[in-house]
Design goal:
single chain, 0% strand
Length: 81
């Protein structure tokens, strides 16, 4: 089984675009709802700093989840192609 550089480039290019699409889907499904909710609460709560902290945690968790999902799907594809 020889390694073809052109094939590696195609897989990388395809999954780079796929990764961007996954992140867009995650942002549309999850982040917009959280974003609107947190900005609404920030206006009407005195504990604004705590909510900003929670906001950052939610954004970080969504980023980690998106990365794990991307790598899982990428290696699943490589195993079953």
């Amino acid at each position: 089984m020889s390694i073809n550089v052109k094939h590696i480039y195609e897989v990388y290019r395809r999954y780079l675009f796929f990764h961007v699409d996954v992140l867009k889907i995650l942002r549309i499904l999850c982040f917009r709802n959280f974003h609107g909710f947190f900005h609404f609460v920030l206006r009407y709560e005195k504990t604004g700093l705590l909510l900003i902290f929670y906001h950052q945690i939610v954004k970080a968790l969504l980023g980690i989840f998106g990365s794990i999902l991307f790598h899982f799907l990428f290696f699943f594809y490589l195993e079953h192609r």
